[in-house]
Amino acid sequence: MTKSDANYALSRPEWDEAVFDNAAYFMTLDMSLPKHELHYRKTYQSLPDALDFARLSARVCLYVISATGRATILDRKQWQFWEERWNQRRRE
After folding, report:
1. Any domain includes 76
2. Using an 8 Å Cβ cutoff, are 56 and 64 in contact?
3. Which pTM does this prediction carry?
4. Chain segment 38-78, per-residue pLDDT in tens
5. Rounded distance, CA 54 to CA 62, Å?
6. Cα 67 from Cα 57, distance rounded (Å)
7. Whole domain around residue 60: which residue ranges?
8. What angle, 0 to 180 degrees and rounded to 10, lies between the N-to-C axes of helices 79-91 and 47-54?
9. What is residue 64's three-state secondary structure?
10. How many CA atoms lie within 13 A of 85 on its CB side?
């Protein structure tokens, strides 16, 4: 059962999972570029596309944004976990 991303009593790992499971889109921020640069921020409809860009530089952060506007940053050390979770949910 998917947890609601509107539940503020969730622990941080549960919050991350709830936002991820209710993802509307993914956003990358390239922290090496000034905010006015064209590629500073990009949005993607799928996690694999966002990861392809994010993996190009260690200075890129990856956020997930839910349909309700909730957001969380995905820890770079756990990107493989999130990719596996994405793939598993697509197979269901």
Report:
1. yes
2. no
3. 0.82
4. 667 889 999 999 999 999 888 889 999 998 889 999 999 99
5. 7
6. 27
7. 12-91
8. 160
9. strand
10. 16
